[in-house]
Design brief:
Layout (H helix, E strand, L loop, with lengths): L2 H26 L4 H38 L2 H33 L1 H4 L11 H6 L5 H8 L4 H6 L3 H16 L3 H25 L3 H16 L2 H5 L1 H26 L2 H8 L1 H10 L6 H11 L3 H14 L2 H17 L6 H14 L9 H12 L7 H33 L6
Helix pairs in contact: 1-10, 1-14, 2-8, 2-9, 2-10, 2-16, 3-12, 3-16, 3-17, 3-18, 3-20, 8-16, 12-17, 12-20, 14-20, 15-16, 16-20, 17-18, 17-19, 17-20
GO molecular function, one term: symporter activity
Membrane topology: Multi-pass membrane protein
Keywords: Cell membrane, Membrane, Symport, Transmembrane, Transmembrane helix, Transport
Length: 411
């Protein structure tokens, strides 16, 4: 059995074992479940932090080297334009699918949830605020590269790296060759580290899933059965659309791409973190045949602008809360909400539980009780599993598609 398949099955085993252990703790030792969850969750925290440790240097080194090696600034602009067109189109499609299906299925009208204690939402409500152009600009333009590195602000690192790479490419190959070679070595060394860190993934998956099952138990699925059913049906529709477009562009190579990214998809699903698979996704897309320069340019942008699963969830959850409270929103108002979500979501990448923060802000703008976020908090972790995995698929398809359009996809 190949090493890659061993890791895949190890993660599957850890996922099943985590569910079983979490269920046993929840039913047999209910008094200890909080303490157990707190301690076992550290395994997931270790894995996530190991990954976060290498994201900033990996983005910086690969992106600078990729742009400096391009040499042609027109190519940078061309690739960037194609990527942004994909991101905007995919975001609008994702938001629209969520809007259409939540209006058709109407989970908020048939789900019986008590509108009582909303204290669990107080932290998210207090952290959310309306869209501000000032905040948007501050989130994109770094005040300090070191601050961006320290806080893992991928978008700010991308802005600096693009400018630095363009400056290097304009200085002459002989003059900057040592710098590019040094950064290239750093990038390859970090990718080597990825191979080591990935073997911690089964422990991370085991810790993350057993903690959430121990805390919530299986009864939560009965209460939220309709909401979960409708949401994952909407995700399935989004996957069908993405895969159809992917097949139209990549042909039968789409199946090879899915085989390559099966581990990143599974890890994102288990840990609810698409960020956790960023380094592994870089590696697998390059093995698939995507040009390394295009991968290092598009993928970091995608993590800020192309979160398809999260986008769909925003319209779905926002209208669901409105339905629970019996608020009838006209179609025109819903379309305005869609456009607002499209805009505000681009300035909040990297914020913890970003989707929920954006939903709260949108609800406040459209007179939907923001405390309603408490109604979906208990099940949000399981929804996050699906949307994180969808985010990874969307970014993998975007990178592969642009590589194909540029004639840079090797067999």
């Amino acid at each position: 059995m190949k090493g890659q398949n061993k890791l895949f099955f190890a993660i599957i085993f850890a996922l099943i074992l985590g569910v079983v252990l979490g269920g046993i703790v929840h039913t047999t030792y209910p008094d200890s479940k909080e303490e157990f969850a707190k301690n076992i969750k550290l395994l997931g925290t270790i894995f996530i932090r190991l990954i976060q440790m290498i994201i900033a240097p990996l983005v910086f080194s690969t992106l600078v080297v990729g742009i400096a090696k391009m040499g042609d600034i027109k190519m940078v602009g061309r690739v960037g334009t194609k990527a942004m067109l994909w991101f905007i189109t995919a975001s609008l499609v994702s938001l629209t699918i969520g809007l259409v299906l939540v209006n058709w299925l109407e989970p908020g009208h048939v789900t019986q949830l008590p509108i009582t204690d909303t204290s669990s939402a107080s932290e998210i409500v207090s952290n959310s605020k309306g869209f501000s152009m000032e905040d948007f600009v501050k989130h994109i333009i770094p005040k300090s590269l070191f601050e961006a590195f320290a806080t893992n602000e991928v978008l700010q690192i991308v802005v600096f790296s693009v400018m630095f790479g363009i400056a290097l490419s304009a200085m002459g190959e002989d003059y900057v060759k040592p710098v590019i070679k040094g950064l290239d070595v750093i990038a390859h060394a970090i990718l080597k580290m990825v191979g080591y860190i990935m073997w911690v993934a089964p422990l991370g998956v085991f810790g993350a899933i057993s903690a959430v099952v121990a805390t919530n138990g299986f009864e939560i699925f009965k209460v939220y059965a309709i909401y979960l059913r409708d949401f994952f049906f909407a995700l399935a529709v989004l996957w069908a659309v993405l895969l159809l477009v992917g097949y139209m562009i990549l042909g039968k190579r789409l199946f090879e791409l899915l085989r390559r990214i099966k581990e990143p998809l599974l890890i994102a699903f288990s840990t609810t973190s698409s960020e956790a698979v960023f380094p592994k996704l870089v590696e697998e897309l390059e093995r698939f045949g995507c040009n390394s320069r295009i991968v290092s340019f598009i993928l970091p942008l995608g993590y800020s602008f192309n979160l398809d699963g999260s986008m769909m969830y925003m319209t779905f959850a926002s209208i669901f809360i409105a339905q629970i409270y019996g608020i009838d929103m006209p179609l025109g108002q819903q379309i305005i909400m869609l456009l607002v979500l499209m805009l505000t979501s681009k300035g909040i990448a990297g914020v913890p539980r970003a989707s929920l923060v954006i939903i709260v802000a949108a609800c406040g703008m459209f007179d939907i009780p923001v405390e309603g976020i408490a109604l979906i908090l208990p099940i949000d972790h399981f929804c996050d599993m699906g949307r994180s995995m969808t985010n990874v698929l969307g970014n993998a398809l975007a990178t592969s598609a642009v590589s194909k359009w540029e004639g840079q996809l090797e067999s």
